[in-house]
């Protein structure tokens, strides 16, 4: 409950928050794992839970005190989605928790919580709202999506395609590894995993990916400490390929942390050449360096700072940025609406304004990074979003305003199985994929000689 309340206040979910709560509550590893499952589950299904609870309550769930909302959602999630907690235990625990909060709440809400959760236990599963009369409400409730986003997708793509996106946003993502080819091969890692009874299959698009059949603690997998793999979604594994980096080149990763794509670039460069990895948050660059040590990457130099400030007037004398780059990756900060299944909290704190805000940053970052590219060099822009404002329209406008840059098709740089994800303009979009990949966009531009 504390973790959920913290998310409501700060809008952030991450290991730091789980660590803080588990040390304050002295949770052991099993209890911590259960807390993470509860928190993620409640956030993933929040709109569906609120709808089910709302059918049984004479008060609107979102008008109740936040603490009562949170307790009800936690209880309802356990009743509707978890088998391993007995129903009576879930209800009793929720009622006790509410009693303990009576002083904070100014009155005792435990009778109300008890009545609503017991009604949920007794009531048969209701029919989903009718999509014919209001597709936005129907999809928002069924797939636990914010109505503004469903409305946006329905308007742009029609209800049928919007439903595919909504469904993808609520599913639990698979655990996918990228084989670190500096250390091993896909077949060798597959054999190591099989020997440890870990079921995995080669990914069908990325040629260096393995999808595990079940989620597990990554650090317990064979080869983790030895840096034989990096945990990374299959769509993310396709982006570095689009730069066509070569050993000996000089590359810039303009927004590098935690280093997934930068360490992949190093592997593609066979650890020869130079990668400058910039990130605005220096503590996140520590993560990049830790990943480099584990994966055996030797050619990466970190550079902390806001790229917009770093590429200032004194660029010509900057020790790391003054020499132009052969290749640049701009994996831009974005709304993250393509990875909601990984970050379910994002559904409830992002707004249409998040898209506009990120767009402003993306436009600025693209303008400054492009100045660092050598004539004939290649820049790849990517984002884990499928909103046009953050994706193709950024590249359309950039190329219109900068005639020395031409958009190139990414098709030659993808493995054959990736070709269905090439858009008519020649960009990469995993928006409609049946491979359980994140929803990513990438475009490639070249600077004229
Ligand atoms: C999408 S993440 C990058 C993920 C990374 N490329 C990877 O594959 O692991 C975006 C990163 O951009 C950084 N960032 C945001 N604004 C920035 C700026 N103005 N200059 C440099 N880095 C920035 C964020 O701190 C964040 O780490």
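^ structure tokens above, recovered residues below v
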């Amino acid at each position: 409950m504390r973790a959920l309340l913290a998310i409501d206040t700060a809008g952030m979910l991450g290991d730091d928050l789980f660590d803080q709560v588990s040390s304050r509550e002295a949770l052991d590893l099993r209890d911590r794992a259960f807390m993470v499952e509860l928190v993620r589950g409640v956030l993933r299904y929040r709109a569906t839970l609120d709808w089910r609870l709302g059918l049984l309550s004479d008060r609107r769930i979102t008008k109740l005190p936040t603490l009562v909302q949170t307790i009800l959602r936690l209880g309802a999630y356990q009743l509707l989605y978890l088998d391993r907690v007995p129903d009576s235990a879930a209800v009793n625990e929720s009622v006790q928790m509410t009693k303990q909060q009576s002083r904070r709440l100014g009155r005792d809400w435990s009778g109300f919580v008890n009545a609503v959760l017991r009604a949920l236990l007794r009531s048969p599963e209701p029919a989903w709202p009718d999509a014919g009369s209001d597709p936005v409400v129907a999809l928002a409730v069924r797939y636990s999506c914010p109505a503004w986003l469903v409305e946006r997708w329905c308007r742009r793509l029609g209800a049928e395609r919007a439903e595919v996106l909504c469904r993808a946003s609520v599913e639990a993502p698979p655990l996918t590894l990228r084989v670190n080819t500096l250390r091993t091969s896909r077949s060798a890692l597959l054999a190591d995993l099989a020997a440890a009874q870990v079921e995995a299959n080669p990914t069908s698009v990325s040629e260096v990916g393995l999808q595990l059949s079940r989620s597990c603690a990554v650090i317990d997998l064979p080869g983790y400490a030895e840096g034989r793999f990096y945990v990374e979604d299959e769509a993310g594994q396709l982006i570095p390929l689009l730069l066509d980096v070569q050993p000996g080149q000089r590359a810039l990763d303009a927004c590098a942390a935690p280093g997934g794509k930068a360490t992949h670039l190093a592997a593609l460069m066979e650890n020869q050449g130079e990668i400058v990895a910039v990130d605005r948050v220096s503590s996140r660059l520590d993560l990049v360096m830790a990943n480099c040590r584990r994966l055996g990457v030797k050619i990466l130099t970190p550079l902390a700072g806001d790229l917009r400030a770093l590429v200032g007037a004194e660029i010509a004398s900057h020790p790391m940025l003054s020499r132009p780059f052969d290749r640049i990756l701009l994996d831009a900060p974005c709304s993250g609406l393509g990875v909601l299944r990984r970050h379910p909290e994002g559904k409830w704190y992002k707004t249409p304004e998040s898209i506009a805000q990120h767009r402003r940053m993306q436009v600025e970052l693209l303008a400054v990074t492009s100045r660092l590219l050598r004539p004939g060099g290649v820049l790849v822009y990517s984002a884990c979003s499928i909103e046009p404002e953050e994706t193709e329209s950024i590249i359309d406008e950039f190329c219109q305003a900068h005639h020395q840059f031409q958009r190139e098709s990414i098709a030659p740089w993808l493995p054959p199985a990736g070709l269905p994800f090439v858009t008519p303009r020649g960009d990469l979009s995993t928006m409609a994929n049946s491979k359980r990949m994140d929803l990513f966009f990438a475009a490639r531009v070249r600077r004229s000689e």
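Residues 135-170 form one domain.
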